[in-house]
Amino acid sequence: MGTDGTTRRTVLAGGACALLAGSRIARAQSGALPQLKLVTNWFAQAEHGGFYQAKETGLYEKAGVDVAIEMGGPQMNDIQLLVAGRCDVVLSQPDQVMKGLQNGLPLVAIATTFQKGLGGLMTHPSITDLSQLKGHPILISEEERTGAWQWLQKRYGFSPSQAGTYTFNLQPFVLNPELAMQAFATSEPYAAQKRGIPYRFFLLSDYGYGGFGNLLVTTGPVLQRKQAALAGFLKAGMEGWKSFLEGDNAAAKRAIMAQNPAMSSDQIDWSVTALKRMNALGEPGARFGRMNDAQWAQTARIAASIGVIPGSLDWRPGYTLQFDDVMTATV
Questions:
Q1: Which of 188, 207, 226 is a domain's end point?
Q2: SS3 115
Q3: Which pTM does this prediction carry?
């Protein structure tokens, strides 16, 4: 739910803190922890590290909630699982939340992982500006053809015929010096560097596209039933992120690699460095996890301008700031 001003935000935040304290009292009396299930948006990786850190170091239990983490993948529809009640929270993106609202789904973002999207384009070093990609083949995933690709066409005049199929494979980039490809700041650049392939990476958020990344999304009914558990989950999760980035993250790394054997310790370390370098989780001194009205409004304007959502859509019910004061860990 969107906010209606400072008074309402303060009351809701105070309510979340009170519920969190109440849940600890109830747990002490009953000995049972409320349970939550998080489904991530991809195979286990550094981009989920704070949540695994909170799980492996006992932060969730300390906050009074028992959290199970299930990794996603290319064949998993996490929004469908969420709406069907198979989990309580998923990692998703702002445009997915808004499109869900358009389709009548009761989606509510309760916090964010990243303050900016991690998506961009990887090009060969000869490209020094995105405008130079006119006429070049650009590999784009099916998912992004209705989002980032529409924005790129509108801003830079790219032709629909330039779009090829992105297949999570670096080989086409290696073989074609004219080709660019969709990439994530913590993934394809790492693979290129490991293979000694020169590249240049353009983060689209630096050029005005995108909003928050890896939102924590629940549904209205779950929010009503499990507000205290969600508060504990968010408090501990953001403490987990601080620990994962700044402390000993060996436990989280082991858990990530156990769930995703294709992931290496080296790639996790490389990704952590990249996330810190780009201030992906916020500028120094900011609180982990917090969203704001202004960035949601900007994201909605961009989505409407490229036809992702109709301009008439009321997107404000798709998020709440009521847990802001629960998330106290700072970058």
A1: 207
A2: coil
A3: 0.89
Residues 249, 53: contact at Cβ < 8 Å?
yes
Q: What is the domain extent for residue 178?
A: 119-207
What's the gap between Cα 274 and its chain centre? 15
When divided into structural domains, the chain yields a total of: 2
Query: Is residue 278 assigned to a domain?
Result: yes
239 phi and psi, to 5 degrees?
-65, -35
Q: State which amino acid sits at residue 311.
A: G
Report how far residue 209's alpha carbon sits from residue 190's, in angstroms, rounded to the nearest whole number. Answer: 22
Residue by residue, DSSP assigns 30-91 as H----EEEEE-SSSS-GGGHHHHHHHHTTHHHHTT-EEEEE---TT--HHHHHHTTS-SEEE
What are 237-269's pLDDT values in tens digits?
999 999 999 999 999 999 999 999 999 999 999
Residues 298 and 117: their CA atoms lie apart, in Å, by 13
Paired with 35 in beta bridges are 66
Q: Is residue 1 part of a domain?
A: no
Kindly report the number of other CB atoms within 10 A of residue 101's CB atom. 19
Please write the tens of the pLDDT for every residue from 6-57: 333 334 445 555 555 554 544 544 469 999 999 999 999 999 999 999 999 9
321 with 222, same domain: the answer is yes
